[in-house]
Structures are given as structure tokens and as C-alpha cells.
Amino acid sequence: MKKIFILIMCLLFCFAPLTTAFAEEIPSQPKVMVTDYKTEGELKAGNTAKISVTLTNKSKTEYVRNMKLTFSDSSGDIVPVGVASGYVDRLNAKKSVTWNIDVRVSDSATDGNHAVNIICEFESEAGSGSSSDVINLNVIGKKEVETTTSNDTSQPRLMVTEYTVENGSIIPGESRKVYITIKNTSPSKAVSNIKLSLSDDSGELKTDGMGTAYVKSISANGTYVWTVGLTAVHTAKTGEHPLTLSMEYEDSNHSGYSANDTIRVNIKQSVMLKYDSARLPSKSIQGETVTVSINLMNTGKSTIHNAMIDVDVKGLDSGGTVLVGEIPQGESKTGSVNLRVSNEILGKVEGAITINYEDDFGETYTETVDVSTVIEEKVIKTEAEEEEEKKNPLWWLFMLIGAIIGGSLGFGIPYAIRSNKQRKEDEKRL
Asked: How far apart are CA 388 and CA 381, in angstroms?
């Protein structure tokens, strides 16, 4: 009996590693679950808010892919704005991802806690999987307004609470959309029969179309986003332009009201810089100073700011950046750079001249010119040559005077001979 027992134990020890290895070859199914969530804004009946849900892959080794996320409220009181699902391509082990969902709370939503399901379907090495978690969202529902004998005589007011410009600014000749958010600040009264008008006193900004809009109604505490296209004329000034938004509307008793708000949009004119003389002399002498004077011309429609010149050429020391400064529209300025030629380099050297400048909004522009020059050896004069030049420093002047006198004699003598001969012939004929 002992021998049989010992034999069985030996077999178990032999097969145990195989069983463990086989178990390790089967990948485990990852677990994806909600680990955190929060809301931005109140979940109030009739309002919109944003919900951020954080999901974490709890697996220590396995990743998941093709994740489909679904938001579901069985009561129907909290509804996503747009689609109710999201997609994540891949989530590695021990990593988290945050899913942002814009939701709207229905006007009839009830007060209190709402249990919402967050469903995640995914794929892994172990096959398809899914998980479902519940998050609790507190909703502030609308309360019934107590009926009173007194009439609400308060005036509903419309005002601009936010506005944005497409791409941040308007470029002349290009239409840009402006998104204006208008809010009814009354907590109890809706407004209707609303006329909106947008105008620019300068005349430099034109609306696409009539510049007016009609809105049927805006509920109490409700908002409306008006999208209007604007185009700036080609001669519009760069900078901030105030626009007037006029709003005419009625309350439930058909009493008429009006309100005005000012919005400010930026016009960004094109910046254009032209230049000349951005070059080096064909030859440079060791130890000498070469001056490069570059003429900068503002040919755009806005002021150029902080114009600077840098010269980076091997063997030429500029000593740093040269600031030209501000160049008004239609004007030009010259920037001069003194370059000290190295005593240790000979032959052709290359580099670049760089011009940097800014527009009215601080955006930087760069122009680069490739340049080159040939550095030649400086000729050192002998003591005798220097002494001769000191003795007669104006030798070139005497040579010039001699050349002038010689030329005059060469022309005058033949002319005098011809004139004398012509005079004698004239006397004979007489």
C-alpha cells in the first residue's frame, strides 16, 4: 500500500509543473471599471452639464482595445448631447482614461439621486469582454411654483454672457463666424418675438447678409447661441473693434423691451516685409570691418514691431543682434551691421542673414537669406613703400593733374595747327 501511495505522489509531482505551465499560457480576462467621476456644472432640470468618467484597466499585464463606452439612464431624465457612446482605441494595463460626456437634464427631471450605467465593451488577448458600473448623479429637479394672487411685474432681461470668434480674429477679405451666447436672466419669465441686430459704427466690419436674426423664444434662465458671419474690408485697421448687439423682445404679457450689449472683435491685417541689400561684398580683407546696410520696407497693412537683424557667417564677427525697431505701414528703415573679418580664415565662407519681426498681436515672422564672401589675405606693405607714401601722400593727385595737362596738350596743339592752316587758305581766296 505504501508503494502505491508513493507512486501516486510521484506522478502528482511530475504533472504539477505541466498543469501550472498550461494555466499560465491562458491569458486572464482584464477588468475595466469606473474608478472616478465628477460633474462640471449643476445637474439641474432644463440645463446642460459635463460629466467626466475615469475608467481604469485593472489588469497587471493585459491591455484592452476597441473599447466602446455607453452612457445609459433608464429614467430618461439625463440624456447625452449628441451620441451616447464613446470609443477608445487602446488602454494599457494599469492605465486610466477619462471620458467626457455632455448631458442635458430634462425639464421634467425629478429631484434626487439618479443611478446611471456606464457600460464598457472591449477586446483583449483573452477574447471579448464587458463591464458595467453604476454612478450616482444628484439632479436638482424643477419645483412647482406656488400660485399667488400677486402678479409678477419683474422685467425679463437679455444679455450677452459669452462670445467667441472663429480662429480668434478676422482677416480682411475672409468671412469668419462669431458665436454669441444670449441668456434670459429672468428666473421665471420666458421672452419671445425676439429680434437681434449686429452693427459696426466704423463700417469696417460687414455682416454676411442683413445682420439681423429672429428668435421665437428663450425660456426662463435659458440661452440662445447666435452664429453670424463677419467680413472686414481690405482697408480695416488692425486691432480691437467694438460691435453693438441690439435685442428687442416681449414677455408673456406682450410688453416690449430692448437691450444693447457691446462685443469686441480683433481685426488682423496682413504683415509683409520686403528688403534689399541683404548681401555681403564679394571679397573681404582679413582684419578689416565690413558694413552691411539692409533696407527694410513695410509693404503690409499693419505696423511691424521689433524688427531685428542677425548675421551668422563663419569668419565674420557681428557682435550681436541689431535692433531696427518699429516700422510703420508704408515706411522703411535701414539696419546696419558691422562685421569684423577674422585674421585666421582664408577663402570662401558662407552663412545667413536672418530678419525677425512681429505683428500687432506679437506673432513672430522670420526671413532668412543665404550669403557668402571670399576672405583674402591682407597685404602688408614694406617700410620703404610706407615711407614713400608718407613723403608724398598726394602722389596720385600729381599723376591726375599730369594726365589732364597731357590730354589737353594732345588735343590743343593739333587743333591750333588746323586752325592756322584754315586761316591762311581763307586769306588766299580773298
From this structure: 11
